[in-house]
Design brief:
rod-shaped; two-stranded antiparallel sheet; mainly alpha
């Protein structure tokens, strides 16, 4: 399921939410369902990140492989040149051959590196083609998630204010009753004190 589908599910949950007592467009929603959808979004998003990392890894692998091949060819040429030079009777010919072999190896190594860079450039070009789409999707996902979280927090704050207001009213009512009862008790005690005298 795509991130877009999951965000649509969140919108559906918000649309199906029951209005709160406070009104003002606030609704009660199934928080567990939203949490499950957010978790699914987290599982979906890394695929785009993995794709970008894979492209970077492929580019590095191509360049590393080319450099390794080039180094191996040069090393091979140097070893062959060293073996030829060991034969004193053909030292001059060996040196000439070694130089030719080394030049050929260096040219081949340069070609390998050039091919690798061309392949890496192709990978980067493909990555750039997908870059705008990935960034737009990520920004939309981030904005939708931020808006959803903001609405969720506002709902919680509104509900909390309602509960606190009701609690303060209940407390004030109870305090008034306690004051009345205390006054009555004081009056009874005073009356008993007068009767005792």
């Amino acid at each position: 399921m795509s991130v877009e589908d999951l965000l649509s599910q969140i919108e559906d949950l918000l649309d199906d939410g029951k209005p709160t007592l406070m009104g003002s467009g606030k609704v009660r929603v199934d928080s567990e369902a939203i949490r499950r959808i957010i978790e699914d979004i987290r599982l979906e998003m890394p695929e785009e990140v993995k794709q970008a990392r894979k492209i970077a890894a492929e580019r590095k692998m191509i360049l590393d492989k080319a450099q390794t091949q080039a180094a191996a060819r040069i090393k091979q040429a140097e070893m062959l040149a060293a073996q030829l030079v060991e034969d004193t009777s053909i030292t001059k010919a060996a040196q000439e051959n070694a130089a030719v072999i080394k030049r050929a190896a260096e040219e081949e190594a340069e070609q390998i590196v050039a091919d690798a860079r061309s392949q890496a450039a192709d990978v980067i070009a493909k990555a750039k083609e997908n870059y705008t789409e990935i960034v737009n999707n990520a920004q939309k996902w981030s904005n939708d998630l931020r808006n959803g979280a903001s609405n969720f927090v506002n709902t919680i704050i509104g509900d909390t204010e309602e509960i606190l207001t009701q609690g303060i009213e209940n407390f004030n009512t109870s305090l008034s009753k306690i004051r009345i009862v205390t006054q009555q008790l004081q009056n009874v005690a005073a009356k008993r004190s007068d009767d005792g005298q």
